[in-house]
Design a protein that fits this description.
The chain is of the alpha/beta class. Helix content is about 40%, strand content about 15%.
Length: about 750
């Protein structure tokens, strides 16, 4: 009997092999055949890891060369008109990354994770046509290796719900056009084998959904579950409870439901409905989103609670979601403190945990073999050690955060901005960038050598300062008005700070896919947070010494540091965030004392942390705003505080943004024209805004005229006195050959607009 299950597995490779071959291909240094060969080897390896760990349900089609939502658009034939003439890999990567002639498709966050998906563009005029080759071929690849997989699909309702209508209609209106393509796909899948397990991911069911969306569930799954008797459909949700959808799905002929019992505890309320329904329950009880070693005895208690209602024979033990959101393996972490490493579990290690959890749950302790009993003993000891470790608790930090902090900065915005404009003397439509400049191979190599102690601190700092000198010179030459130092010393906007904060840990190989080939290496919070010494002051003041123009100080905000870290699970997230905020307030105080007049506190992941359910949002907003204000509370009235936010739909959080009380906010808008900005005007937002005027996630270079048109659109919404001009986001992932002409064009476009406005 199959007893355990993994929702999905990381695809980037344990040494980021997919990232490396993709970027080599995009740089014309290898062929697409090389990409396919690497992909084939990775799939083989990943399937075998799961097989060797004793996982019963292993996925195919969870692998992607860029993104599963993009793959689904290709499968459905949902190709935007501007790409219709392209074929194969040129079509695929142009949709994701753009090309010389066309902008890329929009990208946004996958629910409340740091993974980004490609937003499909749909229209009533579209004609859809099945392309099942990837799905069918991957199943056959695995079968040739002797591995029978379940097939993973993004469900039709989630696909529609996460897409956008380019003709401004409701995506649900396309249900009748999309569902027949899924039917056709299932007919093709049915031919693959005598018996097929099909996992259909519908994470949108974990959100608050209107009756219109919920009304699509029964017709969708009545139809799909009746396509063929040899397909067992598992509808899987994660990241929250999906009780409303569960009630409906239980009245369809699907085979099983996959529910997340860690991040959706309220799924326990649906157990009585599942009882006696003849449906299997894929119980998500091993955390797919965090890195802490599973407490197997505690997990067994949760499973036993579930089994009081649902028969054990109908339960399958699973990860809570895809392991895509976890780093690959601990095997290469040879520099971690051994005590801390013993508390951790990455994706590959989670396979063994899932296997052991299922063995304990379906058997008695006496039935475990010696190896399994030893593993269980080690798990128990690791969890006990973590609970009592002196590395975790810092009474000084706890006392300060409880009793000795300032909650907000002095002065009202209306008064502060007058002081700032007088002191800083910047023009309307002031030009700046978001912070980072290209991380060249030389910069990365110097950082790597310094970390490995193969070059001295003096040589390393000389390299970084030379890069800063070049950044400053370029910005002055091209006419940027408010400068940045380029951040060459920073490997990542969160990891950099994590490495300098007490209570933070960081890994050598803890990479997690963010989008496409882009990976991040989040630090992890294991104990109470404090700042032993200044983190950025030396670099920023050095850069300021190289120019008479204003140099921005660059910090990552407390909520983003929290949301882009793996957070300890023995303390409330709100309390961990508060500790980070207090540490950052000390850094801001040191920066302004060193003469830095503008400080940007990025909250790129502020929206990302929002709960999926409305009833939890107010609580999150309350402490998230509190902690941003604590972080900037040390700023004097003349010190201008900027913040930056990514990929946000601002309509529902504009009041919260205003409550944060930053003097200037920069936002990503290039892929959406001025639509995002309209809410700022409608709301009557007072503070200054820097909407991105070109998309940095695409390698294409925007023309002067293109950027000018973008600025003209912005001026239709907000007055010039309220606008700053900047790219969409940081430029770290771009090449200098793209960055320099783009910024030169941006500055030139501003000059033309200013001339017209005279």
């Amino acid at each position: 009997m199959s007893k355990n299950y993994v929702v999905g597995f990381p695809r980037i490779g344990e040494q980021r092999e997919l990232k490396k071959v993709l970027e080599s291909f995009w740089a014309n240094n290898c062929s697409f055949k090389d990409v396919k060969n690497v992909a084939k080897e990775l799939k083989k390896r990943h399937w075998n890891y799961q097989k060797d760990a004793g996982i019963d349900f292993i996925s195919s089609n969870d692998f992607s060369l860029y993104d599963n939502m993009l793959d689904t658009a290709i499968m459905l034939g949902a190709i935007p008109k501007r790409f219709k003439e392209l074929k194969d890999e040129e079509l695929y990567f142009s949709m994701a990354r753009g090309n010389k002639h066309s902008v890329a498709m929009e990208m946004t966050k996958w629910f409340n994770t740091n993974y980004h998906y490609i937003v499909a563009e749909l229209s009533l005029d579209d004609t859809y046509e099945l392309n099942a080759s990837k799905i069918l071929n991957e199943y056959k690849e695995a079968k040739e290796l002797g591995i029978k997989t379940k097939i993973n699909l993004i469900g039709p309702i989630t696909f529609l719900g996460l897409s956008k209508r380019v003709d401004r209609g409701d995506t649900n209106e396309l249900f009748s056009k999309i569902l027949p393509i899924y039917e056709e796909l299932l007919k093709e899948i049915a031919k693959l084998d005598e018996n097929i397990t099909l996992q259909i991911d519908e994470p949108i069911f974990a959100k608050d959904n209107d009756t219109k969306l919920l009304s699509l569930i029964k017709p969708a799954y009545d139809t799909l579950a009746n396509v063929s008797s040899n397909i067992n459909i598992i509808v899987t949700t994660y990241f929250e409870h999906s009780n409303e959808a569960t009630k409906i799905l239980l009245n369809t002929p699907i085979w099983a439901l996959g529910l997340d019992f860690l991040y959706g505890e309220q799924n326990l309320e649906s157990l009585k409905l599942i009882q006696g329904s003849s449906k299997k329950l894929v119980a998500g009880v091993v955390d797919g989103r965090n890195i802490w070693k599973n407490n197997i005895l505690k997990t067994n208690e949760l499973l036993e609670t579930i089994a009081k209602t649902v028969d054990k024979k109908d339960i399958i033990v699973s990860s809570s979601c895809s392991l895509l959101h976890s780093p690959f393996t601990l095997e290469y972490e040879d520099k971690l403190d051994v005590n801390i490493k013993n508390w951790l579990s990455y994706a590959k290690e989670k396979l063994d945990e899932i296997s052991l959890v299922s063995k304990l749950f379906f058997n008695s302790l006496d039935d475990l073999n010696e190896e399994e009993t030893t593993a269980l003993d080690k798990n128990f000891k690791a969890n006990q050690d973590r609970k009592t470790s002196a590395l975790i608790h810092d009474k000084v930090v706890q006392e300060r955060v409880l009793n000795n902090i300032k909650l907000q900065r002095d002065g009202k915005y209306e008064d502060r901005i007058k002081l700032q404009k007088s002191a800083l003397k910047y023009k309307d439509l002031a030009t700046t960038t978001i912070g980072s400049f290209p991380q060249t191979p030389e910069v990365r190599q110097a950082r790597k050598e310094f970390k490995n102690n193969t070059i001295s601190k003096e040589v390393y700092e000389a390299n970084m300062k030379a890069y800063i000198d070049d950044c400053v010179s370029f910005q002055e030459e091209c006419g940027i008005e408010i400068l940045v130092h380029g951040e060459p010393e920073r490997n990542d906007m969160v990891e950099y700070f994590g490495e300098q904060l007490k209570g933070y840990g960081f890994s050598q190989n803890g990479w997690v896919q963010s989008y496409g080939s882009r990976c991040v290496k989040p630090p992890f919070i294991y104990g109470d947070i404090s700042r032993p010494k200044p983190m950025t002051v030396d670099w920023i003041t050095y850069a300021q010494s190289k120019t008479d123009k204003i140099m921005k100080g660059m910090l990552t905000g407390p909520v983003t540091i929290l949301n882009w870290s793996f957070v300890r699970d023995d303390k409330e997230r709100s309390e961990v965030s508060k500790q980070i905020a207090v540490a950052l307030s000390d850094e801001i105080d040191d920066l302004q004392k060193a003469g830095i007049k503008i400080i940007q506190v990025d909250e790129a992941a502020f929206k990302e942390g929002y709960p999926l359910r409305a009833q939890k949002i107010k609580s999150y907003e309350k402490w998230a705003v509190r902690d941003f204000k604590i972080a900037v509370s040390s700023a004097k009235e003349k010190t201008q505080i900027h913040t930056h936010m990514c990929y946000s739909e601002f309509n529902d959080i504009i009041q919260t943004i205003e409550d944060m009380d930053a003097d200037v906010i920069s936002i990503e808008t290039a892929r959406s024209g001025n639509e995002l900005l309209k809410i700022f005007k409608k709301y009557g937002y007072k503070q200054e805004v820097g909407p991105g005027v070109y998309d940095i996630h695409s390698p294409r270079i925007p023309s002067v005229n293109e950027i000018k048109k973008q600025i003209d659109m912005l001026l239709e919404v907000l007055p010039k006195e309220q606008l700053w001009i900047n790219p969409d986001c940081g430029l770290k992932t771009r090449r200098w050959e793209e960055v320099k002409p783009s910024l030169v064009n941006m500055v030139e476009a501003v000059k033309l607009v200013r001339e017209e406005l005279k």
